Amino acid sequence: MNTGELLLILLALLLVQVGGFALFGLWRRRRLLGGGAGQAGAVAPGAVLPRTTAADTAAVGWPGFREFEVRRKVYESADRSICSFYLSPLDGAPLPRFRPGQFLTFRLDLAAEDGSGTESVVRCYSLSDAPGRDDYRVSIKRVAAPPKRPDLPPGRASSYFHDQVEVGDRLAVRAPSGQFFLQQEDALPVVLIAGGIGITPLLSMLGALLEQGTKRDIRLFYGVRNGAEAAMGEALRKCARAHDRFHFHLCFSAPTEADRSDPYFYHAGRVAPPLLRNSLPLRRHRFYLCGPPSMMESLISGLEAWGVEAGDVFYESFGPASPRRKAPPAPAESATPPPLVTFNVSGKSIPWDPAAGSLLEFAEANGIEAASSCRAGSCGCCQTALSQGAVAYHHEPDAEPDPGHCLLCISTPRGAVTLEV
Prior knowledge:
Elongation Factor Tu (Ef-tu), domain 3, Rossmann fold, 9 helices, 19 strands, 27% strand, globular
């Protein structure tokens, strides 16, 4: 073998080695960012978290509504738009532990909008403290009329809490429930992303992680307009000073000069995918998101485009609709026509569109108003009489519907149905 042949062999071996390293690097990047469909703890695209079933609630909670007393009322933001209510059970029995991120369901007797007396209104509010306390805490933001529509009324339930609920008052409360909660047995670093009052379930998650002495890195990106609107800002700064593994990032869309001097001020603007890509180390994370739908849609699609697997992104939205991931490819056309959904009270019969996702969103898309709150099958607010046909549920509802009724928010029709809405 001459010198030229030896050099060619060495060059070929070097190219094979470089190619192998490149392929390994691509595989490692994909694994760090997203894991894979076979990873433990992964869930299907569009899912939120492993489901809390009615059986789970019965085992750790209580059936129906239970009376609680308001023991403390504390304003949590400089503009007094967010208020915490500390609740203790009247019967004095121990409180069951909940999963960090879950919510309480309240039945409120409010003045009827038509002035005819009172009516029961159901609302859900996230627990904002770590489990294991002698009381439950919810932190509620006053919902004002939209700035561009001052003619619209402010939030009925939030105004009632802020203006009328005082220490010593009693409230009817259903046991903690909900599908958005922390995977505490996990070992991956955690990224918490909150928009506005979406901070509340993430406060519960953060408190649970820090109290258990977690070794996981935790990053919280908290987006609000300015420092006056931030909830529990000083408590979060104190946590960041006390825990090296907790990294607190304030993101203000309209920061004041005082906000810019805050040592935890991180970004002037909204929490968006480019900010996360530039801030996070290149490794796999678990993402927990809660905020308004527009923010959620941007973040979910941005994380997906970045290569983060759906099973590593858990979210909960507040507002009129839940965020959507990219729609799956449309199924091939079938010779069988779609089932007819009849809204008896509204007088509309419309062919079912599977892209709607649920009967609630299908109704809303067709201009039919239906009561709703949690949009997760937990509060029972969207319960509707089903006078004909049957429905299928995405998952077992936490709130068991009455006989002859269904929950619109988590159901789809099994053939033609008639709904009394």
